[in-house]
Structures are given as structure tokens and as C-alpha cells.
Amino acid sequence: MEEIKGNEQLSGPPLRDRGKALKIQSINYRKKILQYIVGAKAGHTGGSLSCTDILNVLYNQVLNVSPETFTSPDRDRYIQSKGHCVEALFVVLASKGFFPEEDLNTLCKYNSHYIGHPTRKVKGVEQNTGALGHGLPIAVGTALAGKMDKKNYRVFTLLGDGELPEGSNWEAALSASHYKLDNLCAIVDKNSLQITAPTKDVMNSDPMDKKFEAFGWAVKEINGNDIDELVAAFDGLPFEHGKPSVIIAHTTKGKGISYMENQLKWHHGVPSKEEYALAQQELDEQLLNL
Amino acid sequence: MAEQINTDLPYKANLEVFSEVLQRLAVDDKQIVVVTSDSRGSGKLVPFGKQFPEQHVEVGIAEQNLVGVAAGLASCGKKVFAVSPACFLTARALEQIKNDVAYSDNPVKVIGISAGVSYGALGSTHHSLHDYAALRAINNIMVVAPADNFETEQAIELASRTNSPIYLRFGKKAMPSLKEVNGDVFAFGKGRIIAEGNDVAIIATGETVYPALEAARKLAVENIHATVISMHTIKPLDTELLKRVSQQCKAIVTIEEHSVYGGLGEACASFLLQHGYAKPFKIMGIPDEYTVTGSQQEIFDHYGLNKEGITDEVRKLLKR
Predict the structure, then answer these.
(1) Contact call for B60 and A175, based on CB within 8 A
(2) Which residues contact B64 (CB under 8 A, 6 or more apart)?
(3) Residue B72 confidence (pLDDT)
(4) What is the topology classification, in CATH, of domain B192-318?
(5) Cβ separation of A138 and B74 shorter than 8 Å?
(6) Does some domain include residue A10?
(7) A130-A225-A199 Cα angle (round to 5)
(8) How far is A158 from chain B (nearest CA, A)?
(9) Which residues of chain A have pLDDT under 70?
(10) Are the beta carbons of B72 and A137 separated by less than 8 Å?
(11) Which of B54, B65, B76 shows the shortest C-beta gap to A168?
(12) What is the pLDDT of residues B125-154, one digit of tens each?
């Protein structure tokens, strides 16, 4: 089994090899996400699994940030607006060496910094998030500071499709295009399910592309669980000079585990011992079949 | 009682002093950034925007985005002053103040302008009588209401050098400059003694300090001697000073341009009672009712937040 560890940046080799390595990495991340959710007896399982590939490509292929450069004013910034899917973020940050992976054994335990939403007490986390509709405004401010200081860093923020009805997102969307923030990229993890029901039934935000376009953004729609499509999309940033970019990433909630995919109950369901064993077995088979 | 009014200085609104100080600081400090929500006019910041367009960000009428954007800018080392009417800023954007500023420890200076009942007859939508209470309950943000031009100038200069979240609240009425006593130095968390006397302590904040001083002058004629404190910092509260005046005086009156719930008065009462300093005590402010309509002064007069109303309460407490 091939596993990428530590700070190895997946750059250099031809794309096909990089793509395979990233696919392996995604499966390994999913294994660990489930491991720590089961350990904590809590977590946002479905959404963490839907955004795993996005985080994988960002941290291993796109972001210019590392534990050593985390305090540099020139680093790329990643702000996770859908903070509840913190398990995916923590697992990826641990793999990049921001903190020892063993720390995640304290996830959601008494007095641990590793709580159910991102906090800056964990190295690698840029902003405390968890209340929805907050990531994009902060990302706009961060991107504005970059423009003011003529820095080359880029700002990325991951939104859930369920949080788009929060009006603050659209206040921020207006200001991002007003200030021509082409150093800003929002990614919508469009897994189409939220805690109550399918997103289109709770509050329909489609056609999402037209809405962002109308707000002055350059839009790309991709399969957000396809490594090659993700790599290609990020490689193409900014999509248009002088405009903020949004990637509408169509994903599957619970991606990778057959009995979790597109099932509402896995929004924050925790697998039983048997379910966990089955999930790990499925992921091991996926590794063998790559 | 010694004369405390420095009549040499022209009276200005604290808001005007705020914008003048910022404009002066921004000449040399290029990290200062002002963020407004279509509030540059009401914040007297039009000249700032003209002189420093590269240090001014306009977000339009969008207070949540105002605070979120300010937090992002502050996280990159900018000294950010996020300016908007206190009524909208501390209600609509309360979650952004709580999470993006205070909890995330982004050192934004949250500036609530035209605070309290400054907007007078525009009505309750434009009044901020909840901001002390709401922000006192949020960890990691100071709550400051300067009384006069001196405190405002000092507070802004100090805020620009302070790397932590601060809420500063200003009115738009011209405020007399209260003379410094014993060359006191302004510091957050340290109340300022405006007058000294042993009968009653009148603890006020923001634009209610001046009527408190007027009341003290009226009481002095009746041989009632008052200590007047500008408790410009409501959080963290100057508990040492509170202890001192409660030992020194026979009664305590607090005055604020805020609901009587959750503000300066209840903060003082909570400390004093829990530390065994109980004295005859009265909280003066806006009661829990639909606020009477009228100008700021008419509202103050209606609720007794003037020298007559304050002296009446002092006499009642002292049974004189």
C-alpha cells in the first residue's frame, strides 16, 4: 500500500502518477477520518467524506503552506467555512505535519483543542469557524489585505451548499467581485444533502452557477470527488482575470462507503463496530483496485 | 468642589474627535484601515476616505460582511477600525463580533457610532441599548465608552496600539472636555475620577458622565459631596476603584445610556454584592419598556438622566 506521509508535496512527477498518488491518499484520509470519528464517538461523517478529495488536492497540490511557513505573511490561506467537517481538515493537517497524528486520539475529549469545529489553537487552522456563513467574508478581508500589500498569496475557502442561504455569503460575494479579488477562490462542496433533507427541498440554491455569475464571479463546475478534475480546476485559477473564482464541486455525501453514500442519517452518524469494520474493508478494497 | 470643565477647549462630538485622530494616525501608520458600511458620512470619515483611499474599505450596507471582512484584514496584520452605527453593528453583526473577532482573536476595533439614543426621534430601530449587555457576555473583547474629547482621543490612540479586540462606542453630541484630575493618564480598565467627595459615588459612562458632573455641582450647593467617575471601560471593570469608592462613600448611583439590564450598573452591582461591599445603590438608565419618543435630550430628561433626576436619586438614597 502506497501512503504519502509528512510534508511530501505531490508535485514534480507526471500528472498520471501524481493523480494516482492523490487517489491513494484520499482513501487513506477516509480511513483515518472514520477511525477518529469512531474514537471520538462523534463527527460529521458524511460531509467530511464528501470534501476529502478537495482538501487532499488543496493541501497536497495547491496550497503554498506548511508547518514551517504557517506564520509567513506570504502563505496561502485556507479557511474552512463548513467548519463542522473538521475531521477531514484535522486528518489532512496531521498528514502535513502540522501536529502529531496521535493528538487526534483526543478528538472531542475533555479539555482537548481538537474539538468539533476548527479552532486556531490547532496549528494549521487559520480561523475559528463553525457558525455558517462566516468563512467567505473573512476570506474576502484576507484577500483584500493581500491586494493592499501587493502580496502573491491566494485565499481559499470551502463552503457547504447547505450554508448558502446565509445572507452573509451573498454580502461577501458582492464585495469580492466589487474589489476584483482574483486572488480568492471559493469551493462549494455541493453534496446536495443537509441535516434535514436534500438541499433542494430545504432551500433550493440552484442554479448556483447563475447566481455566482450574476454576483460577478467566474464559475467552474466539476466533479468534486474526481482528483483529476480538481487538479485541473485549481491549475486554471484564476478563471478570469479581475474576478473571484468559485468551483462548484459536485460531490457525494458519505463518499467511498457504499452504505453511507447519499444517506441522510450519515450527516453526523457514527459507525458501529461492525459498520466501521465494513467501511475499512471497502476502503482497503478500493486501494487494491487502484 | 474644584471646577472640572476645561473651558479653553472647544466642544466637539466624540465622533468628530475619533475621525480626526484616525486621520492623524494614518499619516504615519499605513497599517491603519477603516472599514465602513455606507457609514463614512455619519462616521465623519469622508475626509479620511479622501485623504487615504488606499486605507479605506467600503462594504456597503452589509454589517455582517463589514465585521467578517474586518476580521480577515486584521488577521493579516492590519489595524482595522470597523465603523457602523452601534444599533446595527452590535445586533445584526453580533455573531461576527463573537466568532470572527472575539473568539478567533482577530484584533478588530469595533466602532459603534451614534450609540445609545443618539439618533433620538428616529426610534428604537436606531437605538443601541443592548450593546454593553451583549458584548459583556462575550469573552475577549473590551467594552469602552469614552465620556469626552480627551478620553476619545486617548482611547483611539491606545486602541491603535492594542493588539486585541475592542468595542468603542461614541455619540454624536458635542461633549464638553472634562479636565484631567491630578494629571491622570487614560488606560483601558481604569476609571477616571472627575470629582471627589465622600457622600455619594456617581459612576457614569459615555455621554452620561457630563450630566453626572452637573448633578455633583448642584449637590455640592446642598452640602452633599459626590465622587464622579467616568467608568469609560465597562469591561474589564475597574474593580479596585469600585472597592475604594464603596468604602469611601455612603451610597452609589450608576448612570448609563443603555438598558438598566446588563450594563454598567449591573456590572458594578454584581461585583460589589459578591465582594461584601453592599451600599445603598441605584441603577439609572433606560427602563425595560418601549422607549419614549423624542430627541436624545428629551429621552434623557424623560428618564431622569439629567442633573435634576440624578440629584433626586442621590437625595433619596441618602434620605436627605
Answers:
(1) yes
(2) A133, A137, A167, A168, A171, B92, B93, B95, B96
(3) 98
(4) Rossmann fold (3.40.50)
(5) no
(6) no
(7) 50
(8) 15
(9) 1-16
(10) yes
(11) B65
(12) 999 999 999 999 999 999 999 999 999 999
Round the average pLDDT of chain B to a whole number and report it: 94
DSSP string, B134-176: HHHTSSS-EEE---SHHHHHHHHHHHHT--S-EEEE--SSEEP
Position B185 scores a pLDDT of: 80
**Domain spanning B12-175, CATH architecture:** 3-Layer(aba) Sandwich (3.40)
Look at A141 and B77 and tell me if their CB atoms are within 8 Å.
Answer: no
For the entire predicted model, the pTM comes to: 0.95
| B150-209 tens-digit pLDDT | 999 999 999 999 999 999 999 999 998 786 555 668 999 999 999 999 999 999 999 999
Q: Which cell numbers in the block locate residue B42? A: 455619519
B62 has a chain A CB within 8 A of its CB: yes
Domains in chain B: boundaries: 12-175, 192-318
Q: Within an 8 Å CB–CB cutoff, is residue B75 touching chain A?
A: yes
B68/A134 touch (CB, cutoff 8 Å), yes or no? yes
Number of domains observed in the structure of chain A: 1
Closest by CA to B138, choosing from B117, B162, B110, is B110
| Residue A149 near chain B (CB below 8 Å) | yes
Is B65 at the interface with chain A, CB within 8 A?
yes
Q: What is the pLDDT of residues A230-260, one digit of tens each?
A: 999 999 999 999 999 999 999 999 999 999 9
Q: If residue A214 lies in a helix (H) or strand (E), which one and from where to where?
A: helix A208-214
Q: What is the mean pLDDT of residues B105-120?
A: 97
Pairwise CB contact (< 8 Å): A127 & B77:
no
The reply to whether A4 falls in a domain is: no
- Residue among A133, A141, A146 minimizing CB distance to B69: A141
pLDDT (mean) for B120-124: 95
Interchain contact, B76 vs A136, CB within 8 Å: no
B3 confidence band (pLDDT: 50, 70, 90): very low
Residues of A in contact with B57 (CB under 8 A): 144, 179
CB contact under 8 A, B95 and A131: yes
Is residue A9 assigned to a domain?
Answer: no
Q: Is A6 within the bounds of a domain?
A: no
Burial class (CB in 10 A: 0-12, 13-18, 19+), B50: exposed
